[in-house]
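Tip: read the tokens left to right.
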């Protein structure tokens, strides 16, 4: 199965935005009344989603660069 660079760009961009939003939601739900262990676990969970969002953004950037021919001409 071949994915076009444009489809990969949009799918990666949507994935990145959803992951970053979910990570931000995780950070916003951390409560000061939580125990220290639970707060650390919640923070780690939110950072994991932020990491996934960064990976999605990286793939979106790479797809955009491929689509605009920044890596040289494509052999078809």
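Filled-in amino acids:
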């Amino acid at each position: 199965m071949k994915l076009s660079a444009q489809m990969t760009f949009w799918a990666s961009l949507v994935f990145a935005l959803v992951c970053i939003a979910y990570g931000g939601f995780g950070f916003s739900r951390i409560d000061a009344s939580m125990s220290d262990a639970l707060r650390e676990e919640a923070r780690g969970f939110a950072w994991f989603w932020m990491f996934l969002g960064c990976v999605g953004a990286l793939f979106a950037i790479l797809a955009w660069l491929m689509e605009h021919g920044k890596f040289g001409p494509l052999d078809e």
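The chain has a mean pLDDT of 90. The longest helix spans residues 36-67.
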